[in-house]
Amino acid sequence: MIKSLAVPPKFKLKLAALALASLGLAGCGGTLSGAGPYKGDIETKNESYNLVEINANTIGPYMRGAVRPVQASIAKPVAPSARLMAGDILNVLITDNAPEGSALFAPLSSGGTQLKTRIDDQGMISLPYVGRQFVAGMTLNQVEEMIRKQLKGVTTDVQTHVELVGDLSGSVLVAGAVKSPGRFSTLQGPLTLLDAVNQAGGPVMEPHLVNVTVRTGSQVQQFNYEDVLAGNNMVLRPNSEVVLDRARQRFVAMGAVGEPGLKDLPAQNTSLLDALGSVGGLREANANPEGVFVFRMGEGTNPKPTVLRLDMRDPAAVFYARQIMIKPDDTIYVTNAAIYEWQKVISPVVQTMLLGRATGAYK
């Protein structure tokens, strides 16, 4: 506690002038340092936004929706008909049951003739007695039929079997915010969206902060990864691309809170109470619990911004804060208490007096 100081008369006028000047600066608003507008300014200067006092009668439009139930359905992988493309590697088995000595290829009893070929950049393969043939876009069954037709008349009893052993056409690319991005084969069976992400090591962020984009060449689909985990899984078409990136699920905390700044929403369905808790709550030393505001830009047919005000002195406000939904790009602003603002005005005056006494200015 500061003791009263004996100030000589000749300095009283100067100190009074200094005090009045400090109070005048405070009255100007904006001269004293602060994180934002004063509570009274927000409540009166509302021509450009709608100010909503949150209570039992007004909270309805701003409440969180019900949590979506987890789906019981599962994705059932069904092997699609892979269409070949440049870069695929084929294992071709040709058997020839012509009389011994006239067969061009080994008979089935000895394992047949095994040939391996890669589809070149022009979509072509090259095989003995078959020549160069365009196969890009074909299925494996169509390639088998093409080989049999090309060998008809060359040998009498030919059988073929074509197997895809190195695939680009049947693979899935996973990129973005995963631990091990890469291209993953579907040779062992079809991949669901969860299969592909898990093979890539999983996302590097919490599920609700991850958006998933699936491109198939003909359509684009987007999901939140938390929704995928809740049952919105799907079977991926061959040659699909899966990209995971950060969802814009952020809000700004300003003013008298524990940890102001740009923050990630702690959950997909975040309440005001959750958001305040994630930034350390109200700073008890200087926060004004009657001045908790949420600034929200206009949406849809209502382009006018909205400011929600909550009086945390009201015990019911804790329940209101639990129900109010915080949306991405919202700003939470907690004003300073009036006594704290007054202390910012008085502090320079007191410091000046203490400094003058310490240096002997009042002797």
Describe this structure in words.
With 363 residues, this protein is α+β, with helices and mostly antiparallel strands. It has three domains: 24-66 and 269-357, Outer membrane lipoprotein wza fold like, CATH 3.10.560; 89-166, wza like domain (wza like fold, 2-Layer Sandwich), CATH 3.30.1950; 172-246, Roll (Outer membrane lipoprotein wza fold like), CATH 3.10.560.10. It is built from eight helices and 16 strands. It has helices at residues 9-28, 39-44, 140-151, 193-199, 225-229, 272-278, 316-323, 338-358; strands at residues 50-53, 89-96, 113-118, 124-127, 131-134, 158-166, 172-176, 182-184, 210-215, 220-224, 241-246, 250-255, 261-264, 287-296, 306-310, 331-336. This is Polysaccharide biosynthesis/export family protein. It comes from Pseudomonas kielensis. Residues 77-164 form the Polysaccharide export protein N-terminal domain. Residues 172-231, 249-334 form the SLBB domain.
